[in-house]
Write a structure and sequence with these properties.
521 residues; alpha+beta; Beta-lactamase; eight-stranded antiparallel beta sheet; eight-stranded antiparallel beta barrel; 15 helices
Length: 521
């Protein structure tokens, strides 16, 4: 597992849910009359964060009232390159996209084209989950607040690195197991935001990307940003993704764009923040109604029951519609994080103070975002933000060592002196999983080659013997740790199938069960 993945950043899940307890802790107080946080103080904190955590590139913008206090950036767009990150450099903001999707739905509710409590199946008759009752009852609101009954990240392997379209994934939703209590348990669901995007398209007759541009990004003047990499303006400065300080490939979105596909700069995002903090007003017009913001920023699904939020906040941490919500010293903090391989983003708002900021980095470092967020809020409340950055830097160093030790322990469990029970040609053939579909194992140049057919560039690789009937595969995607494939035999001794162990919180490989197809020798 990459040693710098200090937060098991679970694709598109808020860092606040995935970080270690030391990193989750929130500033304990925000005074009723906070001090102004000036340009110089912010710039010093950003510089210290960059020096302590060494992300590849880091961009930050802070707004206070209707003013942009500071836009600043550090580092480079690509390791080994000479293009510096600037406030106008675009990053994949990943799950911070969800707030834009929720806002698009809100505008349709304002116009009467949708209702928050409309049943999804009444607008998309083909919608079907594994539980027929939930299928009939699930509402637009349920889609956006992660309470569908599907567990966190369930089904994400259907779209990540896959050639499936939204329609393909939509048709497979009924195969995902419902393992949580409907409308009671939080399960972070990218696929439900995909469905929300399909609702937007159905209600408007236009693709989600066009609606986001026309309803939000265009009016806000976000000309340098786009709801998809291919839609960025020619010549855009792009921060390239990195893991472990090494360039990794861009993740493209065939499906699930409404969950994570927006590319934006901190410069453009200041308009988004200022509009939200001004009760939805922008340049004399009401871009979002106060009622819409009220709905989006209401607590719907509590997070504390999972035991993954700070103890002092468990009764108040919740999810609204496209936003995480916290109560700090009696004030609401509205925020969201995003993560895609090579990128981490954070947007934080304190609506009562009309204060907010955005932090983007292209080094896959969630700790720098969490630490800088804490430092900015602490400094604004009269505390020592520099000390917080230094302390969290020490914690991050310990976490890096722990990650290295964890990897060593996994490798130490390999048993030497064993061999596979069948000749290699006996493992070759075609297999299928009820969710991911078909996979092929071919014997080439004396080694088995795995290809999951709908994810041929992501879930693929050469198998090497590990022990017994278990083989190792290193996927080409640096985001994925090495996986182990364990073959099982039938009663007659023939190879019957295989399962995959890939220890990453972002995807549930344990649910996969590839069975050999008849005649697939």
């Amino acid at each position: 597992m990459p040693s710098n993945r200090l937060l098991p950043f679970a694709l598109l899940l808020s860092v606040a849910l995935c970080s270690a307890p030391e990193l989750r802790a929130q500033p304990r107080t925000l005074p009723s009359a906070p001090a102004q946080l000036g340009r110089e103080a912010i710039d010093r904190l950003v510089q210290r964060a960059f020096d302590v955590f060494h992300p590849v590139g880091l961009a930050v913008a802070v707004v206070d009232g209707d003013a942009v206090v500071l836009e600043t950036a550090r580092g480079v767009c690509e390791v080994g390159g000479d293009e510096a990150v600037t406030p106008r450099t675009v990053f994949n903001i990943a799950s911070c996209t969800k707030a834009f999707t929720a806002a698009c739905v809100a505008k349709l509710v304002e116009r009467g084209a949708l209702g928050w409590d409309d049943r999804v199946v009444d607008h998309l008759p083909g919608f079907e989950l594994a539980d027929p009752w939930i299928t009939r009852q699930l509402t637009v609101r349920d889609l956006l607040c992660h309470r569908s009954g599907l567990k966190t990240f369930e089904g994400d392997l259907l779209w990540y690195g896959s050639d499936r379209t939204d329609a393909d994934v939509f048709a497979l939703l009924q195969r995902l197991p419902i393992t949580q209590r409907f409308r009671d348990q939080f399960g972070y669901q990218n696929l439900m935001y995909m469905v929300a995007g399909m609702l937007v398209e159905h209600a408007t007759g236009h693709p989600w990307q066009d609606v986001v541009r026309g309803e939000l990004m265009g009016p806000l003047g976000m000309a340098g940003s786009a709801p998809g990499f291919a839609l960025l303006p020619t010549g855009a400065s792009v921060a390239m993704p990195h893991i472990d300080g090494q360039r990794t490939r861009l993740v493209t979105f065939e499906a699930c764009k409404p969950a994570a596909a927006i590319w934006a700069s901190v410069h453009d995002l200041t308009a988004w923040l200022r509009m939200l903090l001004a009760d939805g007003q922008w340049e004399g017009a009401q871009l979002l109604s106060p009622d819409s913001l009220h709905e989006m920023w209401r607590p719907y699904t509590p997070l504390g029951r999972g035991g993954r939020t700070p103890a002092a906040m468990e009764d108040f941490s919740s999810y609204g519609l496209g936003w995480f919500l916290y109560a700090i010293d009696g004030k609401k903090v509205v925020e969201h994080d995003g993560g895609m391989p090579g990128y981490i983003s954070k947007v934080t708002l304190v609506p009562a103070d009309r204060f907010g900021f955005v932090i983007l980095n292209n080094g896959m470092d969630g700790v720098v975002n969490v630490a800088l967020r804490r430092a900015l809020l602490a400094e604004r409340s009269g505390q020592d933000g520099m000390a917080i950055l230094d302390r969290l830097g020490e914690i991050a160093a310990r976490r890096r060592l722990a990650a290295v030790e964890e990897l060593a322990q996994r490798e130490s469990r390999r048993r030497t002196g064993t061999t596979h029970s069948r000749p290699l040609p006996d493992y070759a053939g075609r297999y299928t999983d009820h969710l991911l579909g078909d996979a092929t194992l071919e014997l080439r140049d004396g080694a088995l080659q795995l290809t999951v057919e709908r994810s041929p560039d992501t879930l693929c690789g050469t198998l090497s013997h590990w022990h017994d009937d278990t083989f190792r595969v290193d996927f080409p995607d640096r985001f994925l740790p090495f996986a182990l494939l364990r073959f099982d035999l039938g009663f007659d001794g023939s190879v019957a199938g295989f399962r995959i162990d890939c220890p990453i919180d972002d995807f549930d490989f344990s649910a996969l069960d590839f069975r050999r197809l008849a005649g697939g020798q």
